[in-house]
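Here is an idea for our session: we take a single protein and study its fold together. Start from the sequence, derive the backbone structure tokens from it, and show both lines together. Once you have written the record down, we can walk along the chain together:
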Amino acid sequence: MLEVENIHKSYEGAPLLQGISFTIHPGETICLLGASGSGKSTLLRIIAGLEEPEMGEIRWKGENLVGTPAHQRNFGLMFQDYALFPHLSVAANVAFGLKMQSIPGSEIRHRVAESLDQVNLSSLSGRRVTDLSGGEQQRVALARTLAPRPRLLMFDEPLGALDRTLREQLMAELRLILHDSGVPAIYVTHDQEEAFALADKILLIHDGKITQQGTPAEVTGHPASAWAARFLGLGNVLDGIVRPDGRVETAAGVLDPACGHGHAAGQSVSLLIRPGSARLGEGQDCLVSRVKDVVFQKEYYRVTLENGVYIHLPMEVTVGQDVRVSFAEVECLPEDK
């Protein structure tokens, strides 16, 4: 079990990581998800032993690893740049790190075969890596990471250089490989699709802090702040002022949120309108606006209104049409911390 406790790190005199703490349990895959520059990769490098924290501890089964060299931690690390040796075969690339550890030849051959079997590349062991596709090279890099039998796997944007179709295919394969291996893993990305496809638990990082953590369903179902809702693209986030009757005045209109926070009249709040909750209809709480844009999205029409709200509808409407829209639920978001 890995425990990260109260990690602090600055960059050019400004705080980058501010009190990061979390735990990874055996067999668990967690994803560090945040915008570029949020400190995700720096945190990964600190865990790997490639950088030192200014404060805090990295513990494996209770042992503090701060100050322990990277090569003694037995953690596997895979970057977006696979750094394969072009003049070597697939098997030789996978074996390279094992040879540096002076492992006997028979054991190296066994581990190489085992790792290539895990990533479904046994039939290509003798081929040069330059003759492989991008997806196959990614599997070679993964096999090389698995071959030393690390006690923790770490990935820093490993699929970022691949096209969308191949990335989707490899996400599914990588999740199965991680679960089959039983090795805990940390996956760093700014891509939400990757995070939701791979992770058992998501850690949202913003301004050097973990602002929310939970399963993919938990963080999307119950965003902890307006920032989280905006970053995850959950829908329309509207700022407003609470009226004496409890409804909220926004730039898009007056809305009646489902809220148990007990806001006072005049208080500023943020509301989340999920686009799939929209219904065309009548009533006091309808927003009235004109259709600005309509885009067909396979299962629904994405409709953008002139008041800035976008909604999903099962039927087509026309640009310029006036519509009245009600919502199954308007959520009141917790205040940003």
About this structure: The chain has a mean pLDDT of 90.
